[in-house]
Amino acid sequence: MELPRGKSYIRLDQVSEEDIENLILRVNSCTWRQTFHIQPVSGLLNDPNGFCFYNGEFHLYYQWHPLGPFHGLKYWYHTKSTDLVHWENVGIAIKPDEYFDSHGAYSGSAVEHDGQLYLLYTGNTRDENLVRRPYLCIALMDEEGNIIKSKKSVLDQVPEGYTEHFRDPKLWKVEDKYYAVIGAQRTDKTGTVCLLSSSNLLEWKFEGELDTELDDFGFMWECPDYFEMGDRGILIFSPQGLEPQGDLYQNIYQAGYVIGEKIDLERRELVHGGFIELDRGFDFYAPHTMKAPDGRRLMVAWMGLPEIEYPTDSSGWANCLTILRELTLRDGKLIQTPIPELQSLRKTKTEAQGELRDETKAVDGFSGITYELVCEFERGDALEYGIEFRASNEEKTVIKFDAAQGKVIMDRAASGKVIGSKHGTERKCRIDGDVYKFHLFVDSSSAEIFVNDGEEVFTARIFPDIRSQEIRFFAKGGQAGFKAVKWDY
């Protein structure tokens, strides 16, 4: 059973249990199912939502279309964890069953207030001509996990000057007042972020547009997220409609941030520097952050992109979330590092070191499908050096440093099934100085690569044959030393 795309607003309760079970069986037979990433039980996962710590547990929700690997009637799906590594599927959190969310419970965020968790989200509706109208909606979760939606929208008119693309509120608290940034599109079809405020989370006021220095920067800004680190204010968002510039903006849509002074809430102004992409790879969108009880700023994102088809579609499912990353500031830039809790997944450890002299070398014990790999390089005079993984005679995914260009390059031209090839098969970024470390997290159908302790990150879905398991180290045009350690997952 799979819905035709024209039937994408069919509700889950309109489908038989048998059809759902058959779909899940088909999903579970897919060899590209992930082992340590959050993924949907069926259908399509996209934006992470409502990431928070409440009642002694971490809660994370995501957009979910259960009945097929395409965008249709969206639910909020709920997962929770005590350790940020092992996630329990709780089930549906928000159903699209009211006048204000009849065509989908879209993205939002969460905050604790008066002992309950308040979920602020976008309700999507369409009229008989399929014209969209968004609402701002509230649901409350108690300590037992019961979720009740408010019976009325808390903001039911898009403010003048903006189109129906007005969504994805991200909450934070300042003293005794709540604020939210929300993604918007002006009527001249340019993207921006607006500011909302509330004293009780149930009645919201439109404060106006946030004044930034990016007046004509794409046609829509999705999934904004504002937070502060020290005396810095950081706005993360996902702009749509940026044209590629050199190595920048190579994906269909981008995700990145600006850093500046803290938002001036009275003047609705953010003074900031330039836009910086968060991830240099192929599949990273709609990042969402939270502040953990220990003070860390944690981030998760959708490991996928809108309007891109993936090979798992034929098995009835699509997409997953990234591993969790801790954000820190270094020299005016966000640094991403994998959370140390992931080390609890480490099993068998294998180590190797050696010299590479214009060669590609396989090492005993270095192969696999799901693992963590840290490789430190010491460049001699090699023109390039790096790693081939999920490799065989026919397939390989490559991460390398090209010393002549001063660039890190990820190449998935031979990674297996082709994805989004019209947007290219390589991603590059410049690095100052040599690359001394690649830190890889490889799952059944993904790779996340942290370069130089999080200075840059490359995230990609890959779909190799299950037999492509080799790991190979190489240097070209000279010599390089390497030291590697791998843990099976």
From TrEMBL:
A cellular component term, taken from the record's GO annotations: cytoplasm
Annotated keywords: Carbohydrate metabolism, Cytoplasm, Glycosidase, Hydrolase
GO molecular function, one term: beta-fructofuranosidase activity
Pathway per the UniProt entry: Glycan biosynthesis; sucrose metabolism
Domain Glycosyl hydrolase family 32 N-terminal: 37-338
Top-level taxon of the source organism: Bacteria
InterPro entries per the UniProt record, alphabetical: ConA-like_dom_sf, GH32_Enzymes, Glyco_hydro_32, Glyco_hydro_32_AS, Glyco_hydro_32_C, Glyco_hydro_32_N, Glyco_hydro_beta-prop_sf, Suc6P_hydrolase
Cell compartments where the protein resides: Cytoplasm
Function recorded in the entry: Enables the bacterium to metabolize sucrose as a sole carbon source.
Pfam families per the UniProt record, alphabetical: Glyco_hydro_32C, Glyco_hydro_32N
Protein known as: Sucrose-6-phosphate hydrolase
SUPFAM superfamilies documented for this protein: Arabinanase/levansucrase/invertase, Concanavalin A-like lectins/glucanases
Leader peptide range in chain numbering: none
GO terms of biological process kind: sucrose metabolic process
UniProt family annotation: Belongs to the glycosyl hydrolase 32 family.
Catalytic reactions of this protein: Hydrolysis of terminal non-reducing beta-D-fructofuranoside residues in beta-D-fructofuranosides
E.C. numbers: 3.2.1.26
Domain Glycosyl hydrolase family 32 C-terminal: residue ranges: 341-485
